[in-house]
């Protein structure tokens, strides 16, 4: 708790300086709202529910894309991690696709799905799958070879081997890739909404900017930062909580 409060000191100082500068002649800017106006706009947006509605729309696409990427990335990553020969075959294709910016897929997904949550989720999924896939492959490869040999000696079926050996041993590192992908999902979802998709926080920010409501625009930008921080903070807490419990449960199963 003390560390969290210490982390708020620097932003607090910035807001105070920003507020004071806004009252000085020669430093006022129409496009640079004062923090007091921004906080009022944020409060009003939360009060009338507009920010919550936009957040729900953004999260709908972000989480859908994240779950698709997580499922595909983990399953394919485990398969490639356990089969180095196949990984060498498909590796060049992965290396070719991975550098493509996710926003470059917007014209293609728009042509396929049109405007809406599916188009946005497809772009998010493309962006999120790579950290999950690469981290999962690396995590599976780093498993102690003796564990895999034990599974072979015990003649475990592939699914049973993955469930009892691979996942418990690699879960901690896979969770890091999932956490990174979760943060990316929010960034990409808002970006797609700013660029094209008429929904969510990104589109709401653009509407505020075009209406010259800079206090509302900054309020929504601040809200996105707070939401992103909450995602990162609580996902890390979830990892810290479940990773040891997951390991213990699987060790109990093996014993």
Automatic annotation (TrEMBL):
Keyword Cell membrane set for record: yes
Keyword Transmembrane helix: yes
Annotated compartments: Cell membrane
Chain ranges passing through the membrane: 6-26, 62-84, 96-115, 121-144, 165-196, 216-234
Domain of life: Bacteria
CDD domains: TM_PBP2 (cd06261)
Gene3D superfamilies in the cross-refs: MetI-like
Protein family according to the UniProt entry: Belongs to the binding-protein-dependent transport system permease family.
Protein's recorded name: ABC transmembrane type-1 domain-containing protein
């Amino acid at each position: 708790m003390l560390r969290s409060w210490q982390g708020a000191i620097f932003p607090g100082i910035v807001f105070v300086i920003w507020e004071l500068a806004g009252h000085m002649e020669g430093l006022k800017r129409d496009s640079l709202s004062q923090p007091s106006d921004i906080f009022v706009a944020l409060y009003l947006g939360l009060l009338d529910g507009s920010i919550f509605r936009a957040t729900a729309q953004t999260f709908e696409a972000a989480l859908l894309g994240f779950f698709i990427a997580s499922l595909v990335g983990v399953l394919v990553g485990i398969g490639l991690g356990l089969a180095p020969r196949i990984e060498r075959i498909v590796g060049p294709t992965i290396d070719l696709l991975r550098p493509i910016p996710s926003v470059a897929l917007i014209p293609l997904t728009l042509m396929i799905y049109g405007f809406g949550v599916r188009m946005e989720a497809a772009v998010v999924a493309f962006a999120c799958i790579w950290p999950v896939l690469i981290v999962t492959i690396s995590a599976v490869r780093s498993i102690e070879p003796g564990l895999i040999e034990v599974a072979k000696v015990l003649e475990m079926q592939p699914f049973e081997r993955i469930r009892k050996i691979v996942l418990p041993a690699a879960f901690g590192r896979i969770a890091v890739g999932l956490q990174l992908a979760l943060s990316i999902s929010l960034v990409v979802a808002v970006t797609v909404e700013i660029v094209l998709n008429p929904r969510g926080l990104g589109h709401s920010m653009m509407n505020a900017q075009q209406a010259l409501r800079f206090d509302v625009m900054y309020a929504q930008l601040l809200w996105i930062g707070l939401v992103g921080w909450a995602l990162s903070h609580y996902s890390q807490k979830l990892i810290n909580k479940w990773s040891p419990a997951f390991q213990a449960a699987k060790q109990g199963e093996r014993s």
